[in-house]
Structures are given as C-alpha cells and as structure tokens.
Amino acid sequence: MTAPLRRYGFEDAERCVQCALCLTHCPTYRLTHDESESPRGRLAMLAAWDRDEAPLDPSMRRALDHCLGCLACEAVCPAEVPYGKLIDRYHEVTASPTRAPSVRLLVWLTHQHGKAAWLHRLLAGLERMRMLPLLKRLAPGRLRTAVRLLPDPYPRAVVPHGRLVPKGAAGDGAQRVSLLAGCVSSLWMADTYVAARELLLVLGFTVDLPDHALCCGALARHAGDSRTAQALRAELLRRLPVSQPILVLDSGCLAETRAACGADGSGGTPVYTLTTFLEAHWPPAFEPALRQPERIALHVPCTQRPEIHDAQAVGRLLGRIQNLTLQPIPIGHGCCGAAGSYFLREPTMSDAFGSALIASLGASLPERIVTTNIGCRLQWQSELRRSRLGIPVEHPVETLLRACPRAGPREGTGS
Ligand code: SF4
Ligand code: SF4
C-alpha cells in the first residue's frame, strides 16, 4: 500500500479528534461563532489542503490568516495537536503575514538595532515637538494602523546597559540576574525597563543588561520567517550570560527565550518573567504599600493564559501591595487583538477585538490597568484614548516600584 500523498507537511492536523474542547478557548471563535474560525475548523482545512482534497481558496485563506497564534487551543487539546508548529508551517508555506509591508518592516527592525534606535530617537523627538498626535491623525492607510498603537506619551527614556549593583553590596555579593531588553519593548516600554532595573536594585539584586536590545525571534516566527527567527535566537544565546537567571519583562518573550536558552524542558539557563521571579524571591522585609487606596484592573494576556503559574504569580505579587484592590478583567473574547504583528496584518479583526476591551471593564472603572505584555498595553492605551478615558496602563513592576519604600538599598555603581 502506498502512503497517502501529503503536499505541505500538515500530517499532524489529522491528530485532531474533533472533540471541540478547544472551541470556547479560541478568541476568533468566541468573536465570530464560526466553525471555520475555530482551531478544529482550521485543522480540517489544513488537512484537506495537504491531501489535495481542497484548494486553498480565499475564504479558507482568510480564516487561517485570522488565527492569532495565541495557542490557547494547544494548551487544552487532549490529543496534543501541535497547533503552533502547524500554523507556523502555514505561514512559512504561504508567506501570508509578510504580504503586509508594515509587518516586513517590523520584522526587519527586530534585527536592525541601530536603525530601531534611530527610529526611537526620531519618534521621541516628534513627541518633544508635540507632533506625534498630529502624525497619528494624519497618517494615511496602513501607516495610521501602525502609528495608532504608538505609546502616548511616547517614552523618552533609553534602556540602560551594563551591570548595576545595589548600594552597599560588594558587587558579586548580591544575587545576579540578567534582564532581557526585548526588541519592541525596549523601545516602547523603555520607561518600564528603567522602573524594572530600579526595583531590582531596591530589592538588592545585581542587574546585568546586554549592551543592546535582543530579540527572542517571536515576531519573525509568527510572520513565517523562520530563518530570521533562528538567527535571532542564536544571537540571544550568544550574548546573554548563561550562568545566572534570565528575566524577561514582556510575557510575550517568555516561550521563545526559554526555547532559545534550552530552558523549555531540556535543562539550560532558567528563564522567568520578571513578575514570576519577583514573586518567588520577594524579600520579606519589603512591605509594599501605595500612598492612597487604588483599584487596579489586571489584564492577563492571551499568550500568558496557558502559562497558568505565570499568570497567577502576577496576581499574587500585586496582592502583596497594601492599599491596592485588584479587579480581574473578564476574559471577554479572549484576546485584545494586538497579538504581535496581527494588528498590522489583520487590522479589521484587531479592531473588533480591541473595541470590546472598554466594555469588559464593567460599570465601575478602575484607577489603573496593569498588564505584562507590550502589545496588550498599547492596544489598551489606544482604546482608552478612543473612548476619552484617562486611565493609565502600566506594567506590574511600575505599580510595585510606586509602592516600595525607597529607604532600602538603592542603585550603586555600574561596572
Ligand atoms: S492559536 Fe488562538 S486564535 Fe488560533 S486557532 Fe488556536 S486558539 Fe484560535
Ligand atoms: S481540542 Fe484538539 S482534538 Fe479537540 S477539536 Fe480541538 S484541536 Fe481537535
């Protein structure tokens, strides 16, 4: 008997037993209630296309392109269908994501550190001249989609580099950690890196920051550019010290950085989100307290939901802060719609997800929103601006720093 013909390598799609357990976890299915926009529907399409039983027609292509790559389906699948590998392969075969020039530009910037830094300075300069709001209003077409999500106000800080030791510690006496400055987050969350470094120093850690931003390769991989993703991972491994824990600020960088460092089950250097690390290593002497009572809404990114331990750690960490009331945000459609470069390549779907965010806050609006993901933060800021709501969005480390007694050990010398 001859083996059935497979054209593109989607054999694993046939492992789906059609149990439907993944459907209610899938943001695009929750939004549309359309089977073709579900993991099960997409797997059936890939399998049929692979066996040459159905051509990849425009409606199939649209449904497959709408996938966010959040992998909520993979996390709950009893048949262990490797959905992430399959959708990456689909992007590789069709090059769908990179048809959008703005996605190509974003992926290019992930490995062009000098050009990215130049762009950062240009945007910070436009912010100083108060011209960024004008650019957001007047930019044409897809460019408007891209600039709509720029942070407001645009950060003027530059991510620090080198080693910083807490005052009073004899350099190597304090526990050393590496803080990974990611490609996009080091530009648009530069203020957050400054806060993260400050918080780690306040808590008594010695912090190593690489001499420029490093990319985990997630954006390139989601865009179907596996060669660039592999090169970026290799560079990340070359430049980060492997003898101490590696901390990522943006939860979206966790899975890829773990894979790059061999920490995804095969040993290797431990990689944590900064929030999970802080939750496990919080010095008991520090009792964070906000000056005034605050109600803060916690947004859990869809990419963090499968990492249940990680998502819960954020809540526990913030739960240490006195005067803080934590308000969970209901799951809603299950995704904010930013999703890496998704907001650039699928702006209509991205908008549909984004426009549901404000309603998810309910009637009693919080004083702040916290989230660990740069894309979610930018999408929230954009929707809050659109609704003329002046609610700040911050990373949990910024909340913690505001709540920490500064009388503890402070930043000392760099070496
Ligand atoms: S990756 Fe996310 S959006 Fe895509 S099918 Fe799975 S759950 Fe749905
Ligand atoms: S949970 Fe897994 S096996 Fe069940 S329908 Fe979804 S992809 Fe198929």
Description of the molecule:
This is 4Fe-4S ferredoxin-type domain-containing protein. It comes from mine drainage metagenome. One of its GO terms (molecular function) is 4 iron, 4 sulfur cluster binding. InterPro entries: 4Fe4S_Fe-S-bd, 4Fe4S_Fe_S_CS, Cys_rich_dom, Glc_ox_4Fe-4S, Helical_ferredxn. Keywords: 4Fe-4S, Iron, Iron-sulfur, Metal-binding, Repeat. The protein has 415 residues and is an alpha/beta fold. The protein has 4 domains: 84 residues, Fumarate Reductase Iron-sulfur Protein, Chain B, domain 2, CATH 1.10.1060.10; 48 residues, no CATH class; 130 residues, Glutathione S-transferase Yfyf (Class Pi), Chain A, domain 2 (Up-down Bundle); 115 residues, 3-Layer(aba) Sandwich (Rossmann fold). Helices cover 43% and strands 11% of the residues. The protein is built from 20 helices and 10 strands. The strands form 2 sheets. A 6-stranded mixed beta sheet has the order 5-4-2-3-1-10. It has a 4-stranded parallel beta sheet with strand order 7-6-8-9. β8, α19 and β9 form a beta-alpha-beta unit. α15 crosses α16. The radius of gyration is 22 Å and the shape is globular. One iron/sulfur cluster (SF4) binds next to α1, α2 and α4.
- What is the top-level CATH class of the largest domain? Mainly Alpha
Beta-strand percent range: 5-15%
Q: Indicate the CATH topology of the largest domain.
A: Glutathione S-transferase Yfyf (Class Pi), Chain A, domain 2
Sheet/helix structural class: alpha/beta
Q: Topology as H/E string?
A: HHHHHHHHHEEHHEHHEHEHEHEHHEHEHE
* Unreliable sequence segments: 407-415
How would you classify the quaternary structure?
single chain
How many discrete domains?
4
Which CATH-level-2 architecture of the largest domain?
A: Up-down Bundle
Largest sheet: 6 strands, mixed
The count of DSSP E runs of length 2 or more, i.e. the number of strands, is 10
SS field, number of helical segments:
20
Rounded to an integer, what's the Rg over CA atoms?
22 Å
Organism: mine drainage metagenome
GO molecular function, one term: oxidoreductase activity
Pfam families: CCG, Fer4_8
Domain 4Fe-4S ferredoxin-type: 6-36, 58-89
